[in-house]
Amino acid sequence: MTTVVIGGGLAAANAVDELRHQGYGGDIVLIGAEPHLPYERPPLSKGVLLGNEAPDSVFVHDRQWYDERQVDLRLGATATAIDRDRRTVSVGGDQLTYDRLILATGSSPRRLTALDRSDLPVQYLRTLDDAVALEAKLSGRVLIVGAGWIGLEVAAAARRAGAEVTVVENAAWPLLAVLGEELAPLIARLHRDHGVDLRLGTAITGIEGPEVLLSDGTRLRPDLVVAGIGAGPNDALAAAAGLATGNGVLVDARLQTDDPAVFAAGDVANQDHPSLGRIRVEHWDNAIEQGRHAARSALGHTDPYTRQPYFFSDQYDLGLEYLGHVGPAGYDELIVRGSRDDLVLVALWVRDGTVVAGLHLNDWDAADSLRLLVGTRPESLDALRDESVPLPRPEG
Length: 396
Prior knowledge:
Layout: E1 2-6, H1 10-21, E2 27-32, H2 47-50, H3 63-68, E3 71-75, E4 79-83, E5 88-91, E6 94-97, E7 100-103, E8 107-109, H4 113-116, E9 122-123, H5 128-135, E10 141-145, H6 149-160, E11 164-169, H7 176-193, E12 197-200, E13 204-208, E14 211-214, E15 219-220, E16 224-227, E17 231-233, H8 236-240, E18 249-251, E19 262-264, E20 269-273, E21 277-280, H9 284-298, E22 310-315, E23 318-324, E24 333-339, E25 344-351, E26 354-361, H10 367-373, H11 381-385
Parallel strand pairs: 1-2, 1-7, 2-3, 7-19, 9-16, 10-11, 10-16, 11-12, 18-20
Antiparallel strand pairs: 4-5, 5-6, 8-17, 13-14, 14-15, 20-21, 22-23, 23-26, 24-25, 25-26
Helix pairs in contact: 1-9
């Protein structure tokens, strides 16, 4: 029996790990488009970009680990086609036969065509090579397009490197879709307090030689432009194979596609989540846990993947963790405990009496409480509103 895993990131590495952990003794082939061993991406916009972590620290396992578990690594190789009838994957001139296939092809940065066609030095941040190249360029005048997680973490790293930073964001606030109008202004204040020229409600309207024209009439002459406007799923291979796709590879609650021999995990998987509905998550924790769950499902386990989305971010001296998903249904109430002025707080989003999401800023003792609360209907919302009543903590 052979299981083929397509992908060279965290989801792929954890799928392989879980297959062996579950006692799977068949052949495993891992196909990674990059020449590197599978690695973690969060350090790319954090430790590696800040120069605090060496590039080789990001690998999930060293080569010996894969050798000891008899994993056939095909690195720097691209899977070009899947033949579901014959159950083969085309890699270069090879045809690899599979019994089970796990797609962990990840996502790619959305491109800004006008910038790409210009003569400006434009950088995206997705791969290890991107991070190494970008870390060496964070000086002078840096223009960042997009005030999402990547854009803001790059802004923080650039300011620490002494660069002059301008961030252009079309929305009214940074991270507006995640934090809402109540909390997003805190992130704007954080970056402005650290010297970032944050241009909100602003877009690029043109490029004239070395100048970038903004909708507020400003002309900028950046030494470097970093584009961080989100990512799209790498689902073209799956779509060409006739698998159901739509903002990712469509999978059921077990992470199984419409082909019973094919599973998907990580950024590329658009899951029918048991409690959250259809959702695609592009975060570290999701890649780990879905990679492992897809491996178990490929081995015949029937449990659904029920984990709540989780992510974290470090910006300057601010650390935050977010758990849950508000989703298109929105929320009825936002409960905030702590100090907005000091950026030490806990926030809980509530809909119909259920805590659908939770966040802490610089309150690390609250992390376990969020895991207890999110996805539940507390007996008393008044107790959550009353800061004199401690948040629930795990027993023991």
